[in-house]
Specification:
Blueprint (H helix, E strand, L loop, with lengths): L2 H4 L1 E2 L1 H8 L3 H10 L11 E2 H10 L6 H19 L3 H10 L9 H30 L3 H30 L5 H20 L6
Antiparallel strand pairs: 1-2
Helix pairs in contact: 2-3, 6-7, 8-9
């Protein structure tokens, strides 16, 4: 068999050779990535393999690398600026979404997405900063609340002793104790929020 014959495969044979579906081979033909022989319509293996190799970036890896590089540049710019300065810049940015130029629309769409992400991050940052509490203040609050709860439980024995001392019914004693425990827990849960 000649080298030229070895270089020609049917669509089905080429799909098996590349370990892909026949639909993928049809897509490659439609995209111009598969090279067909002029007369018989066979796929030229070497030429097609080379073209697929050269256009491998069409599967997204090229764009992933480019997006990563762009994101690194943006991150470097962001690191060099204060949050308030970034927020002002993001709020000032106006995007032209009325254009018919696909590249401009794509860039503007990415910028809009980045703007939304930046505003969301800024809002989350502000909320996070506002919700933090000094560790010593938190420890003091926890200690005081724990002491209040302990004191409530300790005083409960003095309060309940006269009510249950001569009571022969276990279910009645349980009912009295449960009602008092519930009152203490509800009171503890309803303490005012710390300042």
């Amino acid at each position: 068999m000649s080298e030229q014959a070895n270089n020609r495969l049917t669509r089905t044979e080429y799909a098996k050779y590349r370990r892909v579906s026949k639909q993928m081979v049809s897509k490659w033909i439609k995209d111009g990535r598969a090279v067909l022989s002029i007369c018989e319509g066979f796929i030229l293996v070497k030429e097609t393999d080379e073209r697929i190799k050269l256009t491998a970036s069409l599967n997204g890896s090229f764009y992933d690398r480019k997006a990563k590089e762009e994101k690194e540049i943006i991150n470097k710019i962001i690191e060099e600026k204060e949050l308030t300065e970034l927020t002002e810049e993001v709020n000032r940015t106006q995007l032209d979404l009325e254009t018919d130029d696909a590249e401009t629309l794509f860039k503007n769409a990415r910028a809009l997405r980045e703007k939304a992400a930046a505003l969301q991050a800024a809002a989350e940052h502000e909320a996070y900063i506002g919700s933090l509490m000094d560790k010593k203040v938190a420890e003091k609050i926890v200690f005081e609340r724990g002491r209040q709860f302990r004191d409530g439980l300790m005083s409960l024995s003095r309060k309940l002793a006269p009510e249950i001392a001569g009571n022969p019914s276990i279910s009645e004693v349980e009912s009295i104790m449960n009602a008092e425990f519930r009152l203490i827990l509800e009171g503890f849960a309803n303490l005012p929020a710390p300042e």
